[in-house]
Amino acid sequence: MRASLIQVAVDEGESTASRRTRVASLVRDQAGVADLVMLPELWTTGAFAYQRFADEAEPIDGPTHETMAKAASDAGVWLHAGSIPERDPDGSLYNTSLLFSPSGELTAAYRKIHRFGFDQGEAVLMGAGTELRTVRLAGTTAGLATCYDLRFPELFRGLVDAGAEVLLLSAGWPERRRAHWTLLAQARAVENQAFVLACGTAGTHAGVPQAGHSIVVDPWGEVLAQAGAEEEVLTVEFDPAKVATVREQFPALKDRVLGLAAPRH
Questions:
Q1: What burial letters (b/e) apply to 137-147, b meaning 16+ CB within 10 Å?
Q2: Where do the CN hydrolase domain residues begin and end (predicted)?
Q3: Is 41 noted as a catalytic residue in this protein?
Q4: Structurally, how many domains does the chain consist of?
Q5: I need a surface site. Which of 51, 73, 133, 134 has the fewest CB within 10 A?
Q6: What domain range includes position 93?
Q7: Which of the following is catalytic: 86, 112, 165, 199?
């Protein structure tokens, strides 16, 4: 499988409509190059542009869906279109990832479970998802996650228990915690014996410089490819069948001990 991670730069001087058009063109450029294309978290608004979430929120089948479905179909690729600020029919907001098939069909939508901000920002403005999402694509099973989810290993264990072999994470990760980004991506790959494809943003969101450095990690924790800090397309070839080989050669997942009792005091 060949995957292209499009590390979009979010420039506050560029309108959302213009960015959609530009990013759709970048996706179409991957026709014949990649089987799977990934975009970052909240690339339409900027992950830290909290004040724009309500104004820019759209329904699942809104303009980003329409534009990205067409781009996926035109390019003939699986497209993880990053995430959008979704407005539910009841008015609630969610940070929702969209995944399209090569025919442009929406095959999965994932509402981010772990919202960042503690008692402010996304954690206050958006609702929390409650369901894990996996999807069968290109001969493997992919699990979806978003940004802050990366810090919560139990979510990824749940995806692996649901059959995930490739973990797809879109993010808007800040530069000041870039070391954690690389470390955690490798940790999630090693502990779950799975590929991790993590696509972040470049640029500056509401004054917060982004880490960039999108990364692809194999089930042994080896970094297959990593982007720099600026906007770029990171393309890498990998074999999802390696997951089964690694899990057979080093069957650590079989030794998990679940349901341990709490310590006595």
A1: beebbbbbbbb
A2: 1-240
A3: yes
A4: 1
A5: 51
A6: 2-254
A7: 112
The yes-or-no answer on residue 199 being catalytic is no
Q: What is the CATH number of the domain that holds 80?
A: 3.60.110.10
Contact yes or no for 96/109 (Cβ under 8 A): yes
Which of the residues 86, 122, 147, 199 is marked catalytic? 147
Q: Is residue 264 part of a domain?
A: no
Query: For each of the chain's 265 residues, which pLDDT tens digit applies?
Result: 999 999 999 988 899 999 999 999 999 999 999 999 999 999 999 999 999 999 999 999 999 999 999 999 999 999 999 999 999 999 999 999 999 999 999 999 999 999 999 999 999 999 999 999 999 999 999 999 999 999 999 999 999 999 999 999 999 999 999 999 999 999 999 999 999 999 999 999 899 999 999 999 999 999 999 999 999 999 999 999 999 999 999 999 999 998 899 999 8
Where do we find the tokens 């993590």? 198
